[in-house]
């Protein structure tokens, strides 16, 4: 079945690309012959005696905390493959599977965004689709990496808007209207000022703001959960010092400090 996302958007209550994709997905689910997915890709999470599951059932299973990460990655690898090779409906399905996370990202940054929310939603969807076309599906943590690409896009969009408002305010002698203390934007500023590396800002954002567990982050990075924990602790020590106006300890100083502990 071929789905026209643009057409779906025109009939939706909002012109938001996120709502357009969700509308297109619901159309797939409401069809007389709803789109199905091989149950075998769910591994141990597959329903007994079933060869296929509907895409609605698939999303519910992927959202369940009881579904093992191995099953999630197996499903996501196949979804990415189908999106690349078949496009159309399977691209809609891939975005829809991540919809709860994408909506959360967009809503979180909307509080600090002064432009049309549709623009912010569009950046989130575009980043997700761009990463969908290039992501390495042989590595674990496919969805968290896709989600993080969308998160970073929203972060960049809001940061650019804040810069624009800041510069405009300088000419108009008015204070910026946007809140600069938002947790996501603190990470952007810290990265810009060299307090955190991009990788460390990503790690803190993923595990503190996006709900990615240390074990999940470790699988994505190819290291142990303890190594991820130590790396985050060092990055957060630098971030806290910077926020409190104290001298920011160097990475080597933090390593030596841990060695003496």
Automatic annotation (TrEMBL):
Protein name, per record: Sigma-70 family RNA polymerase sigma factor
Keywords, alphabetical: Sigma factor, Transcription, Transcription regulation
Presence of the UniProt keyword Transcription regulation in the record: yes
Pfam families: Sigma70_r4_2
Record domain RNA polymerase sigma factor 70 region 4 type: where: 204-239
Similarity comment text for this entry: Belongs to the sigma-70 factor family. ECF subfamily.
């Amino acid at each position: 079945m071929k789905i026209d996302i643009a057409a779906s958007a025109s009939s939706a209550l909002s012109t938001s690309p996120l709502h357009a994709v969700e509308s297109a997905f619901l159309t797939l689910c409401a069809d007389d012959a709803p789109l199905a997915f091989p149950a075998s890709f769910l591994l141990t999470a597959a329903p007994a005696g079933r060869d296929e599951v509907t895409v609605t059932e698939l999303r519910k299973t992927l959202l369940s905390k009881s579904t093992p990460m191995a099953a999630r990655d197996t499903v996501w690898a196949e979804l990415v493959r189908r999106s690349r090779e078949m496009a159309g409906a399977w691209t809609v399905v891939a975005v829809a599977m991540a919809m709860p996370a994408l909506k959360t990202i967009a809503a979180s940054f909307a509080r600090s965004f002064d432009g049309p929310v549709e623009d912010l939603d569009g950046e989130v969807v575009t980043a997700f689709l761009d990463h969908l076309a290039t992501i390495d599906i042989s590595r674990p943590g496919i969805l968290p990496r896709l989600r993080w690409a969308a998160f970073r896009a929203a972060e960049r969009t809001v940061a650019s808007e804040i810069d624009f408002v800041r510069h405009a305010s300088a000419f108009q002698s008015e204070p910026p209207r946007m809140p600069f203390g938002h947790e996501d934007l603190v990470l952007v500023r810290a990265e810009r000022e060299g307090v955190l590396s991009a990788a460390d800002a990503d790690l803190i954002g993923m595990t503190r703001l996006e709900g990615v567990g240390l074990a999940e982050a470790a699988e994505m990075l190819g290291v142990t959960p303890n190594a991820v924990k130590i790396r985050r602790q060092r990055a957060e020590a630098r971030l806290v010092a910077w926020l409190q106006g104290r001298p920011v300890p160097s990475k080597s100083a933090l390593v030596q400090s841990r060695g003496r502990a």
